[in-house]
Write a sequence for this structure.
């Protein structure tokens, strides 16, 4: 049986592959949207920092590296997301 980290790692790999095929920018928010199939919505109790930390810890396995942070506005709320590039 797979643990949650293994499942999330598989889903993140699929999302990154799809974003790359679409020639889309690879950001933590875009990865969340690909995994969930829903537009990203900001929550006051959470943000994308948890997944960004997970992606950072698994950069080599995912074939990505940190590029920069980008500030974005979603539903009139400002937030930031990590931008990744393929290695």
């Amino acid at each position: 049986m797979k643990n949650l980290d293994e499942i999330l790692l598989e889903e993140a790999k699929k999302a990154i592959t799809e974003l790359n095929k679409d020639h889309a920018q690879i950001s933590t928010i875009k990865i969340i949207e690909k995994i969930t199939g829903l537009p990203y919505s900001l929550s006051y109790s959470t943000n994308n920092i948890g997944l960004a930390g997970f992606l950072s810890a698994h950069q080599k396995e995912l074939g990505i590296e940190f590029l920069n942070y980008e500030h974005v506005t979603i539903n009139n709320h400002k937030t930031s997301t990590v931008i990744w590039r393929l290695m």
